[in-house]
What does this fold into?
Amino acid sequence: MNQNNISGKTSQPGDTPRYRYTDIVLIVVGLVVTFLGTYNPIFTLIGIILSGIGLGIWAKRTGRSIIGWVLIALIPIIGPMIGLGVMWARREGPPVTVYPERRNITPHVVAAFIIFLVFAVVIDSLGIIFAFLVALMVIALKRVKSEHPVRMKLIAIGIYTVMLVCAIALKAINNQVSLRNASVIIAACEQYKTKKGVYPDRLNNLVPEYLSKVPVARYSGITGWTYFHHSKKREDEGDYYTLQYSYESLFGRRFYNSETKQWRSMD
It folds into this structure.
């Protein structure tokens, strides 16, 4: 039996790996996310991570320093762009060992990152992530059944489980951010009313005297507040406002009423 079939084979110049452009795709996606998150630290961090993984994959595939190229990705935008330039200038690298089993895991890693990026970071929806997760796990188990050992099944499931844990953690962080920033807005509205006798017509009226800027609702693609100001209609009826934000895209919203001083949720 050929030893290469067991431990892997050495790729030669001109070979075209099945997922040759995964590194380039990750770097480009990382750059796009970083551009979109110029004023959003979560977006910037995700962009740096994606670019770092892409540069690390390319460095390993071409026999270069993995740590060195991953560190270059820590320089937002500029680092990954330098990496892309070097990748284009030095397209040919020394032969590296290619393990067929690892190629089969690459689609799951890419799918997990894309799902996390789109549905956890941008759309902010755990419900959609759960639906995709179940479907992808079923697909992984069926495909792996005839092509890979049990160990590869567990690795595929582990990849999606890690993605789910990261999505839940990001959701928890965003929920805390929403409540904290809502408390800041509510306090500013009360200060505004104490001084002027009425609540502000818009949140922008709080800037810059009471707020340096209106804080984001959460660090995701859904960052805005919905503010409704209700003017008083009778002398015995004071004005009030409601503050709203979405905590689960397409499904969940939370409302604060200044009359009752309470939050309520609507799914």
